[in-house]
Each structure stands twice: as structure tokens, then as C-alpha cells.
Q: What sequence folds into this?
């Protein structure tokens, strides 16, 4: 008998507003790596005068999501974290440039 | 005024009220040391940067205020990492300032170049690579603000050598960095907590480092007394409730007294005050306090629900929460719960074999405690001796007990004791250590001798990595390997060689008299206590088991 297929993870997107400086990306990516949070995609663009950036993260939508958000909010250079479910469209649109 | 980056750092540290800096100079931070020489700061020259980091931790843990250490680039920075990670896990405010190679050489694999920023991202609360002297005017006050705000923690400022030397014109220095106001508990959450407490028949407070950091230990005790609420502590919460208080039930978890873990099995409401439900404290999380609703108060929102989903999670400074809670609670006697506690305490007390013999673990701790009194600050290293001290030393005030909890760093005790003695020169400081731990930062005996700090090192020498030996005995079929030291250093001769007084309780005619004499002499001193390698710390909850599943420590009291 085959083991049951794992259910495909439900996914969502988070939008971060961060201070734009060298190193902020390593803070965000390092957090996901060391806390074993899954992140499938990352998009980042400077906004306004370039002092800040917006980062879109493609993440699992599961019971750990509130913990992911709480940990992100503790990073000093992360100014705002909010769920952005429609942000997933951006990953789909970007994919064709990368394939 | 004109100043270079290094001089600015000194002015800004002075304005923060920093008096002592521990560190070691090297090529990339020599400009900082040149400015340090001309400053009002007192420098303590450690013998290894990890020692400098733990000396700063000792200052910070003893006072509750941020402390500072210096290291150079490359190995100076990597040697600091363990002390930094230790501070992160135990929420200790440190400001670590490292030298870096000049800006133009960054990225070239220059001599003693290492990516300090990258290395410290996961183990610092925040970090900076400073790119100009002018940036220091923002970064240094911000570093102190962040280190002390909310849940405290260590921060790292990496300063390239040419930034230390860059001279700028400064109109006026910035204000010192101060902690941000903590998040306020919502009044309806406080009211709900009061309702849960009022309706609980078997409540327990579990108090941790967050309560001590909030400075609210006395208020917690008053509330516990008014509501007849037993108080258990985590390893880092010891001292918040005075030992010997009828409501104090000791440390919870892997090496708790049996009655303590059994009481928590029965509680119907657990109020966690500045705790993080660490696995050594709660055992298997799903089986912890199985009958209880949980109220969890912590200043760090990410701790609420991280390990244990609370009935009510409150993001607040524990002290602010207790201040709001106190007027909402009426007196309550809970005689049945008090009787249950009394019965458990009588039938399952902490067993302390050898408590009258100063050449045993419990005996040395008990006698030392009587001899040094409540004024002393106590540090420990990590291992069996740490757990024996946590179980048996009568801690009676917050910040009396400094130990490495989360990271569990062997080598912590001696330099932390030096730091505590520097910060509190009027208090005696005692470091309980083991032979394995002491060897991990032995070189700091030279620092202790040089500074003439009033530190007494009580070395429980069993010639083993005792807690490793114990786990091999209990969980690895007695297959002992790499836990025994076959070469036995002469620690008394070594301590004397470093310039300390030293005494050996082994083979002396009156060990208690010698222990007393060693503790009474002012200045650094090592006292070696030979203990049996077979002595284990009991009870013990096997790693991964529920706290109710304790091995050993039965007292065979009448049941």
C-alpha cells in the first residue's frame, strides 16, 4: 500500500517594509533558515526615495505563520509585516522572467 | 569639537554611564585603545575575548544595565561569539564593539578580516557595520537603546579601523540611548487574568528571568502571598522568590525536587511570568501542567504560543502587568491547595545526601552558603555542580544568581564572577565550578589576580565531565567514553601559579575550617573540593520525557 501523498501546503504571501541597507536581506533570510521556516520565493524592490524597501515573501500558510510574523517583527530593520495574499500573483508573474 | 571615530566612541560610552570595559586590543582596534587610554573608562584586560565577553555579562547580569566589551577583528571577533550567543539566549544587554579592517580592504580576505556582521546576525539582537565616523553618533546611542529595550539582548558594532581614525567636526553629542517604553498590557486582558486567578483552585506562578529583568519580584511575592499561590522558578528565575518562603517551591524541570514537578502536575492554572517554556524547564511540552490553563505574560510577543499555547497570552512588561493586576485581586486562602503542597513537600522533598560533609556536592554548597551569607553574588559554570547549586543554594534576592541558562556555556562562571565583582566591589562573589568547566576559561585566573577582585572559586573536582558521565551511566548503558580526565591537573598549584591564594580540602584535617578561612580572606582565591565521580544529580527527567517521569532522588520518607 502506498503511503498517502502529503497534502500540498497552502501558501500565502507576506509583505515586509524594511530599511534599505546592505545586510537587511541576510537578517530576513537568516531568520527563515535558522528557525526552519519555509520560504519559496523572495521579491524585493526599493520604494520611495530608496531609504526603504518592500519585500514580498512566498510562505507556507500553516499553524506556524503567526510565529513567523512575530519573529519578523522583532528584527530591528523590519518596520512593518503584513499578510498580502494577493502578493502571490507577483511570484507567478515574475516566474516567466526566470524560466 | 573635532574628534575621530574612536574618540567619539569613548565620549558616547561615557555619556551612557559606562565605567568599565573588558576587552583585548589588536591591530584593527588599536585606535580605539588609543582613545580609551585617554578616556575616563576603566579597562579590564581579559586573557581571551570570550573571557572579556563573559566579564561584560557578569557586569550586566549583576546590575541589569548594558555592559561593554571590545575585541579586534578576525579571531578577536570569533572568540567573542560564544559569549554573544550566550547573552542572546539569556536576554542579557551587551554592547560588543569590534575592530574591522579598513573599509577599502573589506572583502579582500585581508589579514584578520572576517565577516563579523554576517557571523553575528543569528546571535545578536541587532548589529551594525559602521561606514563612517558620523554614523557612530546614531549607532552608539541606538545600540544601547536596543540592547536595553523590551526583551534585552546583545548588540554588535563593527568599526573599521579607518572609521576609528576618521576625524569629523561634531556640533553636539547625541543624548544617551535609553530603553523604549514597553508594550502595555490591555486592561481587559489583565481583568481576564484576574478572573482566571480568582476562579482557580490550584494556581501556580512560574517565574523566570523576565520577572527579574522587570524588577517586580517583590510585587510578585506580595500577590502570591495575598492569593496563597505557590511560586516555582526556572533556572534563571531563582532568587525572585526568597528561598525558605513557605510559598516557594524551588526550581522546576529536569533537576527539580520531586515535589515541585508533582505540584505542577496538579495545578489548574499556571501563570508564566517572564518565562519561555524552555525544554529543560517544561520537559515534554505537551505533558507539562496537563490539567492547567495557562496565562503567559512576556514582553516578547514571539514567546506567546511558541512552545505552549496559552489560554491567555499577554504581551507586556511583567512588572507593568503585576502593577495592573494587584488591585484586582482580593485575598484568598486556598487551604486545600496549601495542604496538597505541604503533603507533597513532606513526602517528596529534595534529597541532599552528604549535606553535613563539606567534601560532598550538597555539603560544600550548604556550608559555603552559611559562611558567605546573603550578601554574596553566586555564579556557576555548567554541569552537575550548576544543578546542585540551583537545587540547594538558598537564593534570597534577584540578581544574586548568575548562570548560563539557555546556551549552557562551560567557562561562563569565572569571568562572569570577575565582572560581577568589578560591578559590585562591596559584595563577595563566589563562583561554583567543576574541573571540566574551569579549564574552559582558566586563563581568566590571570585577570582575577591582576584586578585583585574578591572572587572565590569553589571547584567541585571529580576528574570528569560529570553530567556527561551521568548521562552515559543512565542512558547509554554505562558505556563511559571521553567523560573521564585521565590527567589530573594540580588546580591548587595552578591557581597559585596565577597568583591566587588556593586551598585544597582533600586530605586536610578540618575541611570546614579551611573552607571558612578561604572564603573569609579578601581577594581572589580557589578552594578545591574533591567530590566522588559517581555522585549524580537527582532527580533527573530524561531528555524528551515528561517532568512527571523522574529518575532517582527518592528520599524514602513516610508516605
A:
Amino acid at each position: 500500500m502506498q503511503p498517502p501523498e502529503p497534502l500540498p501546503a497552502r501558501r500565502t504571501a507576506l509583505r515586509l517594509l524594511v530599511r534599505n541597507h546592505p545586510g537587511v536581506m541576510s537578517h530576513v533570510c537568516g531568520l527563515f533558515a535558522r528557525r526552519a521556516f519555509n520560504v519559496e520565493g523572495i521579491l524585493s524592490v526599493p520604494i520611495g526615495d530608496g531609504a526603504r524597501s518592500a519585500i514580498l515573501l512566498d510562505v507556507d500558510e500553516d499553524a506556524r505563520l503567526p510565529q513567523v510574523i512575530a519573529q519578523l517583527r522583532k528584527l530591528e530593520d523590519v518596520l512593518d509585516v503584513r499578510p498580502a495574499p494577493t502578493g502571490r500573483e507577483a511570484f507567478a508573474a515574475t516566474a516567466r522572467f526566470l524560466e | 569639537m573635532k574628534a575621530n571615530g574612536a574618540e567619539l566612541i569613548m565620549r558616547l560610552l561615557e555619556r551612557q554611564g559606562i565605567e568599565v570595559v573588558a576587552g583585548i586590543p589588536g591591530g584593527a582596534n588599536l585606535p580605539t585603545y588609543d582613545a580609551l587610554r585617554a578616556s575616563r573608562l576603566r579597562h579590564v584586560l581579559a586573557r581571551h575575548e570570550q573571557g572579556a565577553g563573559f566579564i561584560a555579562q557578569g557586569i550586566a547580569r549583576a546590575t541589569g544595565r548594558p555592559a561593554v566589551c571590545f575585541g579586534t577583528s578576525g579571531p578577536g571577533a570569533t572568540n567573542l561569539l560564544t559569549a554573544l550567543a550566550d547573552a542572546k539566549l539569556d536576554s542579557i544587554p551587551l554592547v560588543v564593539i569590534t575592530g574591522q579592517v579598513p573599509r577599502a580592504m573589506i572583502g579582500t580576505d585581508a589579514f584578520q578580516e572576517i565577516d563579523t556582521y554576517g557571523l553575528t546576525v543569528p546571535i545578536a539582537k541587532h548589529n551594525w557595520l559602521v561606514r563612517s565616523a558620523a554614523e557612530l553618533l546614531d549607532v552608539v546611542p541606538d545600540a544601547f537603546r536596543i540592547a536595553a529595550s523590551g526583551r534585552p539582548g546583545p548588540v554588535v558594532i563593527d568599526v573599521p579601523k579607518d572609521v576609528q581614525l576618521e576625524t569629523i567636526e561634531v556640533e553636539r553629542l547625541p543624548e544617551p540611548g535609553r530603553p523604549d517604553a514597553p508594550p502595555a498590557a490591555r486592561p481587559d486582558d489583565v481583568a481576564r487574568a484576574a478572573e482566571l486567578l480568582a476562579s482557580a483552585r490550584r494556581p501556580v506562578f512560574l517565574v523566570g528571568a523576565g520577572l527579574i529583568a522587570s524588577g517586580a519580584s517583590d510585587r510578585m511575592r506580595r500577590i502570591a502571598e495575598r492569593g496563597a499561590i505557590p511560586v516555582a522558578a526556572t533556572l534563571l528565575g531563582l532568587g525572585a522568590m526568597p528561598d525558605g518562603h513557605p510559598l516557594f517551591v524551588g526550581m522546576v524541570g529536569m533537576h527539580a525536587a520531586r515535589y515541585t514537578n508533582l505540584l505542577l502536575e496538579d495545578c489548574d492554572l499556571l501563570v508564566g511570568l517572564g518565562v519561555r517554556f524552555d525544554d529543560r524547564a517544561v520537559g515534554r511540552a505537551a505533558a507539562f501542567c496537563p490539567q492547567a490553563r495557562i496565562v503567559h505574560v512576556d514582553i516578547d510577543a514571539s514567546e506567546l504560543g511558541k512552545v505552549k499555547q496559552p489560554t491567555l497570552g499577554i504581551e507586556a512588561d511583567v512588572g507593568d502587568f503585576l502593577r495592573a493586576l494587584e488591585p484586582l485581586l482580593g485575598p484568598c486562602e486556598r487551604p486545600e491547595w496549601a495542604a496538597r503542597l505541604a503533603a507533597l513537600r513532606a513526602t517528596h522533598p529534595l534529597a541532599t545526601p552528604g549535606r553535613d560533609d563539606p567534601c560532598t556536592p550538597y555539603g560544600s554548597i550548604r556550608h559555603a552558603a552559611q559562611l558567605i551569607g546573603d550578601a554574596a553574588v553566586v555564579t556557576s559554570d555548567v554541569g552537575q555542580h550548576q544543578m546542585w547549586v540551583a537545587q540547594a543554594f538558598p537564593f534570597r534576592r534577584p540578581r544574586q544568581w548568575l548562570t548560563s541558562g539557555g546556551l549552557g556555556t562551560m567557562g561562563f562562571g569565572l569571568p562572569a564572577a570577575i565582572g560581577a565583582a568589578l560591578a559590585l566591589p562591596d559584595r563577595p562573589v563566589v563562583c561554583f565550578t567543576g574541573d571540566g568547566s574551569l579549564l574552559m576559561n582558566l586563563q581568566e585566573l590571570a585577570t582575577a589576580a591582576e584586578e585583585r577582585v574578591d572572587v572565590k572559586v569553589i571547584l567541585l573536582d571529580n576528574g570528569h565531565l560529570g553530567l556527561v558521565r551521568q548521562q552515559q551511566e543512565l542512558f547509554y548503558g554505562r558505556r563511559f567514553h571521553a567523560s573521564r580526565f585521565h590527567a589530573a591537573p594540580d588546580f591548587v598549584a595552578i591557581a597559585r601559579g596565577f597568583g591566587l591564594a588556593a586551598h585544597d580540602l582533600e586530605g586536610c584535617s578540618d575541611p570546614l575550617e579551611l573552607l571558612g578561612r578561604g572564603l573569609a580572606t579578601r581577594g581572589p582565591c580557589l578552594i578545591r573540593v574533591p567530590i566522588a565521580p559517581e555522585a549524580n544529580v537527582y532527580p533527573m527527567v530524561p531528555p524528551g520525557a515528561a517532568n512527571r517521569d523522574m529518575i532517582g532522588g527518592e528520599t524514602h520518607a513516610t508516605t
Remarks:
- Chain A touches chain B at residues 22-23, 26-27, 30, 34, 66-67, 70-71, 73-74, 76-77 (CB under 8 Å).
